[in-house]
Amino acid sequence: MTLGEPKGGRSAAWEYTSAFPEIVWPALPAGDGAATLGLLFQLESTQWLSADRLLDLQMSQLKVVLRNAHATVPHYREAWRERYDPEAPLTPERFSSLPLLTRRELQASFEALKSGSVPVTHGSVNEARSSGSTGTPVRILKTQLSQLLWNAFTLRDHLWHRRDLRGRLAAIRHGVPAGEFPGWGLATHGLVATGPSAVLGIKEDIDAQLQWLEGQQPSYLVTYPSNLAELVKRSRARGIRFPGLREARTLGELLTPEVRELCRRAWGIPVIDMYSAEEVGYIALQCPLHEHYHVQSEGVLVEILDERGGACAPGEVGRVVVTTLHNFAMPLVRYELGDYAEAGEACPCGRGLPVIRRIVGRVRNVLIGATGSRYWPGFGSHGFPEIAPILQHQFVQKSFELIEARLVTQVPLTIEQEENLKRHILSALPSGFRVNFVYCDRIPRSAGGKYEDFVSEVALPQPP
After folding, report:
1. Are strands 335-343 and 247-250 parallel, antiparallel or unpaired?
2. Which end of the chain has the lower number of beta carbons within 10 A, N or C?
3. Following DSSP, what letter does each residue of 256-275 receive, concatenated?
4. In tens digits, what is the pLDDT along the chain, a chain of 464 residues?
């Protein structure tokens, strides 16, 4: 098996590029490109290791990470006092006894979380910021080595899903310069020949996006799930087609089965999702054969914890806690992202990489009952088109009894449509709630370009 031929079938062959004009074939990449290929070569092997062997390797890397963090990072030196002994053998049990690092602590303790000694071999140190769907960004330091790992995982994702890199890539998103570019970005630059790419800002209205996308006629599209759903609906209403489009790739938001099915029915293509965060890089990538996700264990250790801090069994939903394995500029150890996910069983594809069955949402996407009960709400949105001409919707929990339904509609709704819609929504919710409609011209995205179907403004009770 070669790097251009994933296990289970052929993909379009990749054409590697050489950094030396005198060496045309075999291609000889420059330093960073060679390091990326070296990592990718190992990733092609390690994905097939058993879960136990992967955990052993993670523990060996964590041993180095924790010793460095304890010695060079003031926050951990204080937080781990009497909890961590750098000379003691590291076991999963000892690791799980370390305190969690919250998002709020990361925001408030930026200086105390910086390492006082970053290995010079890890390259330059740069600051990054997460956009954040809540409008409250976090700052993080990363090294050049962090970018190399990101590049290698990006290439793994391309390999897993057998992408023809010679196609045209279009992206509609936040935080990336808009314009037209000769390649697909940093992961392939100077390493693999690709087709062109183009980027449009997410703030453009949906009709402008659709017109731009029609002009691009891409092979691959990258955008947020909510934006993809709007594009599909609008293109279907206007009879616009994309015959050369092979795949939609989504990021940054919760991807629902409804959006997958909508894209499959209207455009005839699959949706491939990725789970990442600015602070920690790639967390999980969609399996090549299934719609669940594989944790990228070579880069992060992921725990899914119940409300009392224990590991969730397959089928249980818990908090996502991530530890970075290679960022020595600002190591994040047991960092609580604020996301919830469902743990999964071992994958039939044969990869030992742990499975996340689904990403459920963020803490603020939990519906809270008057008794403190928590629900991951469904509002029956897949049935809305049969009831009323709704273009956009967002639900906000205002109290323990009240749900505010913010709607953008094609035409004003009739009283009958409102009553039918209200009954449909309430049938999908626990008893005791009522719904008020608020009509809007447009439901804006967050400063980071993201969009949430549901947000709770009710404080989440803390577990005892």
Report:
1. unpaired
2. C
3. PHHHHHHHHHHH---EEEEE
4. 344 444 444 446 899 999 999 998 899 999 899 999 999 999 999 999 999 999 999 999 999 999 999 999 999 999 999 899 999 999 999 999 999 999 889 988 999 999 999 999 999 999 998 765 444 578 999 999 999 999 999 999 999 999 999 999 999 998 888 999 999 999 999 999 999 999 999 888 889 999 999 999 999 999 999 899 989 999 998 999 999 999 999 998 889 898 999 999 999 999 999 999 999 999 999 999 999 999 999 999 999 999 899 999 999 999 999 999 999 999 999 999 989 999 999 999 999 999 999 998 876 677 888 777 777 777 777 788 889 888 888 899 999 999 999 998 888 999 999 999 999 999 888 888 999 999 998 888 776 667 778 888 887 655 44
Predicted TM-score (pTM) of this structure: 0.85
The three-point CA angle 64-301-56 to 5° equals 60
Whole-number Cα distances in Å, 308 to 131, 318, 319, 374: 29, 10, 10, 15
Confirm if 196 and 179 have CB atoms less than 8 A apart: no
Handedness of CA 313, 66, 323, 365 (dihedral sign): positive
One-letter identity of residue 207:
D
**Residue with the two structure tokens 């999908």:** 428
Tokens of 19: 């950094």
Residue type, 21: P
